[in-house]
Design brief:
Distance between the termini: 54 Å
Number of strands: 13
Structural class: alpha/beta
CATH class: Alpha Beta
Largest sheet: 8 strands, parallel, barrel
Shape: globular
Strand order of the largest sheet: 3-4-6-7-8-9-12-13
């Protein structure tokens, strides 16, 4: 009998497959379908700090008559924040009433300002955990990498002061020393690390000569961005749950991340492309593979190919295509 049960941040999951924060998780109707298809947990669509702030600024800008009345600006900002958060709290409450799988709230943060106090309201609404989705573009040449890293720590600690439910950090790959960042967050008490967030990326339209958004959905090859770090961090940072994210498009990719040491795997783009049935298809592939290999539980094979479990861990460290390109050069010369 195949048993896919696992724990993530202390939460009991019937399997390690989690549908990540997106438009797929912004309504109770969709969340119920996600549960019916077998997902182990769901991360609600993010509450965006930046979006709330921009909405308030745009409204204040339109109401030019308020220019000489700062108290009116304060009222608008408070109203916009309160309205957005109120809608989000309603989604949490209704989702918790509708499904039995863990419901994880998501906050997209760019600062540690007092808005993080809303995290307490999220906890009261019944969320099982909070995922902090943080990506801060380092555009200030006068700020050091350490100063930018401190922004992440400050955000986490500001939220941690407000709640007692588990907190994960969903971060990007662009750190000077990702090991150090993960280790510091672990020491500060983070319950999980999600590798990696998928953020807006610019592109250029050469016909209209304008900036546009690059493709939003991930591709299967994007798994390479996280597989290396899942494999190393799952061995190096003890006691930290790791959720693999980005590029997991089928059962094979999910199995790879579990072998590398992931506690859970998050999917999104593949569900957009293939529909909600992809959830049950991936779970079926994992079960079929486990049966063929003789594994009865996920714990029996999780991390068996991480950094500390293979004969040559340098395979995770290698950064150059030495062997590959040396062979290619021979082909060209021939």
């Amino acid at each position: 009998m195949i048993n896919l049960e696992t724990t993530y941040m202390g939460l009991q999951l019937k399997n390690p497959l989690v549908v990540s924060s997106s438009g797929l998780t912004n309504s109770v109707r969709k969340i119920k379908i996600i549960e019916e298809k077998g997902a182990g947990a769901v991360v609600l669509k993010s509450l965006f700090e930046e979006q709330i702030t921009n909405e308030a600024k745009n409204l204040i800008g339109k109401e030019s008559s308020n220019a000489n009345y700062p108290e009116a600006e304060d009222y608008i900002q408070t109203y916009i924040k309160g309205h957005s958060v109120s809608n989000y709290l309603t989604l949490i409450k209704e989702a918790k009433e509708a499904v039995s799988i863990p419901v994880i709230a998501s906050i997209n943060c760019v600062s540690s300002s007092d808005w993080t106090s809303f995290a307490k309201e999220i906890e009261k609404a019944g969320a099982d955990a909070i995922e902090l989705n943080v990506f801060i573009v380092p555009v200030d040449r006068n700020m050091s990498s350490t100063q930018y890293e401190n922004l992440y720590y400050n955000i986490f600690n500001a939220v941690k002061k407000e709640v007692s439910i588990p907190i994960s950090m969903k971060i990007g790959i662009y750190f000077t020393n990702l090991f150090s960042v993960a280790n510091r967050l672990n020491a500060d008490g983070v319950d999980g690390l999600v590798l990696f967030n998928r953020f807006y990326e610019p592109d250029i339209d050469i016909e209209t000569m304008t900036i546009k958004s690059a493709p939003v959905l991930s591709s299967a090859s994007d798994i390479r961005k996280s597989l290396r770090w899942v494999g190393m961090l799952s061995d190096k940072i003890k006691g930290l749950d790791i959720a693999a994210s980005t590029g997991i498009h089928d059962g094979e990719a999910a199995i790879k991340q579990l072998l590398a040491g992931a506690t859970t795997v998050q999917i999104c783009s593949t569900v957009y492309e293939h529909g909600f049935d992809q959830i049950s298809d991936i779970l079926g592939d994992i079960s079929k593979w486990m049966k063929a290999k003789g594994f009865k539980t996920v714990d029996e094979f999780r991390g068996s190919l991480n950094y500390g479990s293979i004969p040559n861990p340098a395979l995770y460290e290698r950064a150059q295509f030495m062997k590959y390109f040396s062979n290619k050069e021979k082909d060209v010369l021939i």
